[in-house]
Each structure stands twice: as C-alpha cells, then as structure tokens.
Amino acid sequence: MAGRITELPLVLIELEENNFHLVLEGKLPGKKTAFWIVDTGASKTVFDRNLEDCYELVENAGNEEYQSAGISVGMVETQVGQLKKLKFGPVKMKDLKVALIDLSHVNNIYQKYRDIQISGLLGSDVLKAYGCRIDYQAETISFYKKPLKR
Q1: CB–CB of 134/24 below 8 Å?
Q2: Which of 30, 45, 110, 132 lies 20 to 30 angstroms, CA to CA, from 86?
Q3: Are 111 and 97 in contact (CB under 8 A)?
Q4: How many CB atoms lie within 10 A of CB 143?
C-alpha cells in the first residue's frame, strides 16, 4: 500500500473490569473537540444527532443501510447526515456520510468514568477507507493520508 501514514494516539478507557473502549480525539468545525469511540464492529460511522451544527441531513440514496443496532437494545431510530468537516490530527475528512442517532445513553455511561463527551463511533467504513491499523500495545491508530481506492 502506498501513501503517507499518520499515527495518532488512542485513549484506552476501561468502563468495567476488562471492558475497554478505544477513544480517538478529533476536531469538528469551529475547532470543537470531538471524542470518537473506535468501533471495528460498527459497519457505518455513527454521529450524535444532538450536535446539529456539525452536520446536514441528507436523503439516503441507493441501497445503503443506515439502521443502527448493537449499541442498545433493538433497532435505533436513524437518520442520515453528512458531516461538514472532521479532523483527526492532520487527517481531514469532508462530506462524510454518517448514521445519526441520539448518543445520550452512551454519554451517560461515559460521564461515570471520564469527563468527556462522545461525538460518534468511528465505524469500519472509515477504518477500511483509510487503511487504518490499530496497535493495542502502543495505543495508537494509523491512517493513510487519503482514503484508499476500492
């Protein structure tokens, strides 16, 4: 694989004994800090619909599925949004399509352990597109500078 690699630090958060989440810090428009759970089990990237100033609603064109299950019981009401801008270190993403759901329940859990607000879950769609590699020992994630072509 060709391309420049950017390695960024992850924060390993233990929610319960031996129950870990990897969290990546990013930036939203207006230099707003955004914390993202790196979720290799999520097929699509998810964003908190309560952060209205960071996305635009879009029609779900084509066959893409944007239903969310797994982070709570049953299916979750989902809309499709497009993030205006998102940065992870020098990695810049524009017009990223995301599933929009209410992440209040996730943030309620996190408030018990850390004073951070989760903006979204970085899913396999982005992780694959950027050829991401996670190093659990070093607690880092590597991105290729530009998304890989499929």
Answers
A1: no
A2: 110
A3: no
A4: 25
